[in-house]
Amino acid sequence: MIQWYPGHMAKSKKEIISNLKLVDVLYEVVDARIPVSSRNPDIDDIAKNKKRLILLNKADLADDEVTSLWIQYFKQKGIAAVKINSITGMGIKEIMDTTKQVCKEILDKKQQKGMMPRLRVMIVGVPNVGKSTLINKLIGSKRAKTGDKPGVTRALHWIKTPNFDLLDTPGILWPKFDDEKVGVMLALTGAIKDEILDIEELAIQLIEILKKYYANYLMSRYKIDKIIEDNFEILKEIGRKRSCLISGGEVDTLKASQILIEEFRSGKLGRISLERP
After folding, report:
1. Closest CA to 260 of 252, 273, 269
2. CATH number at residue 228
3. Does one domain contain both 98 and 216?
4. HSE (CB half, 13 Å, CA atoms) of 246?
5. Does 86 show up as a binding residue in the annotation?
6. Contact by Cβ (8 Å): 91, 46
7. Antiparallel, parallel or unpaired: β 250-251 and 245-246
8. Are residues 151 and 222 in the same domain?
9. Is 129 annotated among the ligand-binding residues?
10. CB 3.0-4.6 Å disulfide test: which of 6, 49, 235, 244 passes with 255?
11. What's this model's pTM, rounded to 2 decimal places?
C-alpha cells in the first residue's frame, strides 16, 4: 500500500470544494495513457451535478484506437471527453467547441439576462498530467508554472483567457491507493516521483503490459527474437541489446529498467495505452 498525501493536497481539496460554486464548468485533465489511474476518485463526488469535460492529455503518446474507446466510455457516462496534446495545442479548438455545447444552457441564460456570455472554468487534475502546460496554451502565454516534477502548482488562482476565466488548482491525489495497480500506473507515467517505487519492479510491470498488447513494439525496438514468459529475462535481454553491462559481463538491470521506462514515457517505444475501458 502506497501512502502519499502531502498536506497541501488535503488543503487543495477543501479549496476546490469551496470554489466550485464560483464556476460554470469543470475541466478534468487526465493522462490519455491511463485515464482511470490518473483520475482523482474524489472528483466524481466533488463535481456532482457540475458541467464537466474530461481532457485526455498526452494523446500523442497514447494508442489512438484505445483513446477513441475511452471517449465512447465517458460519453456513455454522460461526460464529454476530448483528446488533446497540451504541448502542441492539438485539441484546443475542440475544447472550446465542446465547452460551448456542454454549457449552451448556461450561455443562453447569461445572454437572456443581458450578461456577457463568458464562462468561468475550473481546471483540476492529479500532479504531472500537463495541466499548467495546457493553461499556457489556453491563455497563449507562460503564466502558469510548468515542470517535470510532480506537484509544481501549489495555490488556486484566476487566469483570464481570450474565451473564459480560468480557475487553476494544485494537482491533487487521494490519501492512499486502494489498488496497487493505480500506484504502478502513476509511477510509470511519471505522476509519482521515481524515488518512491522500485524502478526494476516498475520495468517488470511495464514488460507484462507490453507483452499482452504491444509485443511487436518490444521486439522491434530492442531487437528481441521472441517473447518469453520470464519478464526479468526479457529485461536482461533489453540490457544486453543496449550494452548495459557491468564487470564480468553481468547485465545492469537497473540501467536497462531506466532506459525502458524513459523510452515508454517519451513515446520512443511507440504509442502505448496502459489501460483500456
Report:
1. 269
2. 1.10.1580.10
3. no
4. 8
5. yes
6. no
7. antiparallel
8. no
9. yes
10. 244
11. 0.88
Q: In this structure, are 79 and 11 located in the same domain?
A: yes
128 within some domain: yes
DSSP assignment string, 204-257? HHHHHHHHHH-HHHHHHHHT-S---S-HHHHHHHHHHHTT-EEGGGEE-HHHHH
Does the annotation list 187 as a binding residue?
no
List the CATH number of the domain containing 145: 3.40.50.300
Is 136 annotated to bind a ligand? Reply is no
Q: Among 168, 190, 207, give the residue marking a domain's end.
A: 168
Matching residue, cell 498488447? 213
Cβ proximity of 20 and 52 under 8 Å:
no
Report d(CA 175, CA 146) in Å as an integer: 24
In this structure, are 228 and 100 located in the same domain?
Answer: no
57 is in an annotated binding site: yes
Distance between CA 254 and CA 114 in Å, rounded? Answer: 63
Is 163 among the annotated ligand-binding positions? no
Domain C-terminal end among 168, 185, 209: 168
- Is 50 part of any known ligand binding site? no
Clarify whether residues 247 and 153 are in a common domain. Answer: no
Note the pLDDT tens digit of each residue in 229-242.
999 999 999 999 99
pLDDT digits (tens, 9 = 90+) for 121-166: 999 888 788 888 998 898 886 565 444 444 444 456 788 888 889 9
Can you tell me the distance from the alpha carbon of 216 to that of 47, in angstroms, rounded to the nearest whole number? 41
Query: What residues in the chain have per-residue pLDDT under 70?
Result: 1-10, 12, 141-156, 170-178
Q: Which range marks the domain in which residue 120 is found?
A: 7-168
The rounded distance, in Å, linking the Cα atoms of 238 and 269 is 12
